[in-house]
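U., I forgot to send this yesterday:
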Amino acid sequence: MTTRIELLTEHLQLQPHPEGGFFKETYRSEELLHSPDIGGSRNLLSSIYFLLVAENFSSFHCIGSDELWYFQEGAACTIHVLHRQGGYTKIKLGLEISNGETLQTWVKAGDWFASETNGEYSLVGCAVAPAFDFKDFEIANRNKLLLAFPDFQDLIERLTRDD
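Result:
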């Protein structure tokens, strides 16, 4: 019997993501943005499916663009954000708005963030503008992140991979 996770992975053609979870890019605009702030030219927008499963998590990482998150199906997921200016935000992305969940949210460029499902799986969509580029993608070094955010040791140790 095929599980929902197996069906989603196969049907959506999801592949492992370096930060954890599984993804498939579904859109990349043809139009380009030209700016020295982004190192030249970049597609305006990209979008992916992103699947988190109970046995995995998305490790703390940061990217050079704002990222919008949209809940699709499954259990709610929690996005943990360590702001580059200091501070922490916990976002619950899901359907139960009366329980503090939201259907969509964003993470600002340069903030460190990690995510995990609150159940068996969470399927979300993520849009990045200007478009995602692996040259702007950095997986957190646990020790460096601990130095920058010492008050969040337990969270950082739980949601980073061994260096």
